[in-house]
Amino acid sequence: MLGKYRQKDAAPAILALVAVAPDGQVVDALKKLGIRATPAGSTRFLATSAESYGIVGASEFIPDLILTLEHPHPPDLASYPNLRVATAWALAEMTGERRYVEVLAEAAQRTIDRSPGLAGDSAYDDSSKALEYLGSLHNPRAREVLESALGSQHPVAVQYAVVNLLFNQEGGSQWPGKSCFGSCEANSICWALICC
After folding, report:
1. Which sequence spans correspond to the domains of the chain?
2. In this predicted structure, what is the pLDDT of residue 194?
3. Which of 176, 163, 99 is nearest to 136 (CA)?
4. pLDDT exceeds cutoff 70 at 39
5. DSSP the chain
6. Model confidence pTM above 0.85
């Protein structure tokens, strides 16, 4: 919550605490604020930490992230199914390059196009995670995908789109509210957000 609203007043105290008593939960608190607990160059690259690198802006790992995206290692993929989208998001977040946003857009489209309730349907997978990541990017292509998700039959796609267009996208959205009403009929979160 603090990181989302950029309330970083507690950061110096948390950094001091990490120096005295390094603890995973305290380091996670810093990460949520987008602050590194360790100086650049003091840790080695781990593909499964791609999301963390994007959050704290660990730009020294950009070359490693590009390699991970282009040539992922099967063991990393097996232990972290969202590796491709997490890596694409970290690169999009740190570089702003459209090609990484496109990787997320392609993955998110699977959730947008998917009918809910199909056998084997997991509402929360790499494609829905891609849609969540797109919501945090201030990018015209990301906004375009979120707006297209408003017409999805999949409730997860609609929820992520509504929340992110209302709260994470500067200036809100250009979509007319009525266009998503059909999708929202069975979605109480969507209705609650629109009616507030």
Report:
1. 1-37, 45-195
2. 46
3. 163
4. no
5. -TTTTT--TTHHHHHHHHHHS--HHHHHHHHHTT--SS-TTSS---GGGHHHHHHHT-GGGHHHHHHHHHS--HHHHHH-TTHHHHHHHHHHHHH--HHHHHHHHHHHHHHHHPPTT-TT--SSSHHHHHHHHHHH---HHHHHHHHHHTT-S-HHHHHHHHHHHHHTSTT---S-GGGGHHHHTT-HHHHHHHH-
6. no
